[in-house]
Design brief:
CATH topology of the largest domain: TIM Barrel
Strand order of the largest sheet: 7-8-9-10-11-12-13-14
Distance between the termini: 43 Å
Number of helices: 8
CATH architecture of the largest domain: Alpha-Beta Barrel
CATH superfamily of the largest domain: Aldolase class I
Radius of gyration: 20 Å
Structural class: alpha/beta
CATH class of the largest domain: Alpha Beta
Number of strands: 19
Order of helices and strands: EEEEEEEEHHEHEHEHHEHEHEEEEEE
């Protein structure tokens, strides 16, 4: 079942210009865009994934990961098939690299936006996360869910590669509360060769969302031999500091998967080195992911541990209302329960 797409321009020669993501695909009749889920049918662009989630799951928000946005809350997580990147190291490739060419949605039944919101409320979730694959490619579905979620008092989160256009961000900001953006590298060559994208649109998404008041956290998956040099890690950290030194940086360890099966796992020492570099460049909150090590939040002023984390659980141990350190009174940037 297809639904008419937004963020596109019809052209006189029956081609369609999609302006949803930074590929800005010009799609001839009957063809699909790069994402494989948006198709030009008779000179009109349609999406094939609206209402057809491949994943619906209740998660802790720390799994997104978001550490400074309502820690300890539950996220109702949703995804459809498809992605506008083709990362060789993708950890969710079984669903992200599936598309709807041939008429397949890979979903068992249609679930309307109001049903998604009702499910989230029934399960006691405080927010809805558009995650697992790339939410940009199911933008119309996410938008309609997000608007209803806002009316129901729920928050909306994007876990995204950040490859959006300015036009898409204009549509996104009215219903979005927070985003975790993957910053996969600081080299355009890496994005072009490994992800099939470009670096600058991702940087602009991080800048723009932060500028517009969306809470932003950033994740970098460190792949040995690809993006793990001290210089590149320092460049990433310096860029984040230029946006805000309070942006939490999540550093994740790679494990062999998809097309990167010959690469070695990321050693814990490399993650800890990235954390050290980030602190040297001025970032205040750096969190090592999927290795043994502390993911606690500490006050950047007095050093007191204010949130204790174990796995995907979080406990406020010295954080007062509004994100205030219980020891020195400094306020930590984030979105906290009042």
């Amino acid at each position: 079942m297809k639904t008419r797409a937004i963020l596109c321009h019809q052209r006189g020669d029956r081609t369609v210009q999609c302006v949803l993501c930074a590929h800005r695909c010009r799609i001839v009749e009957d063809a699909f865009g790069f994402c494989g889920v948006r198709q030009n049918i008779g000179g009109t662009l349609f999406t094939h994934v609206y209402g057809y989630p491949i994943a619906l799951q209740d998660d802790p928000i720390e799994k997104k990961p978001l550490y400074h946005f309502l820690p300890g809350s539950r996220s109702f997580s949703i995804a459809t098939v498809g992605c506008n990147f083709q990362c060789g190291f993708c950890q969710n490739w079984q669903i992200s690299q599936t598309n709807t060419r041939g008429g397949h949605t890979a979903a068992s039944r249609k679930i309307l936006p109001e049903e998604v919101v009702n499910l989230a409320r029934e399960r006691g979730c405080q927010n809805i996360a558009y995650t697992y694959t790339e939410p940009t490619v199911f933008f119309e579905y996410a938008r309609d869910i997000g608007v209803l979620a806002r009316r129901a008092g729920l928050k909306n989160l994007f876990v995204t590669n950040g490859y959006l256009t300015g036009e898409a961000r204009d549509e996104l900001v009215p219903f979005l509360d927070a985003a975790n953006v993957d910053l996969k590298s600081f080299r355009d060559e890496y994005y072009r060769e490994i992800c099939r994208g470009r670096l600058e649109p991702v940087l602009e998404t991080i800048r723009d969302l932060h500028r517009r008041g969306i809470w932003v956290e950033v994740t970098t998956l460190i792949v040995p031999g690809e993006n793990d040099s001290d210089g590149e890690l320092g460049d990433i950290a310096s860029f984040l500091v230029s946006v805000s030194p309070d942006i939490p940086w999540h550093i994740s360890a790679f494990h062999p998967d998809y097309r990167f099966t010959v690469h070695k796992r990321t050693p814990a020492e490399k993650i800890l080195r990235a954390q050290e570099i980030g602190h040297e460049r001025g970032l205040r909150f750096i969190y090592p992911g999927n290795i043994s090590g502390s993911a606690d939040t500490r006050c950047p002023v007095c050093g007191r541990r204010v949130i204790r984390r174990s796995g995907f659980t979080a406990e406020a141990v010295a954080l007062a209302r509004g994100g205030v350190c219980g020891q020195c009174g400094a306020r930590l940037n984030g979105v906290w329960e009042e």
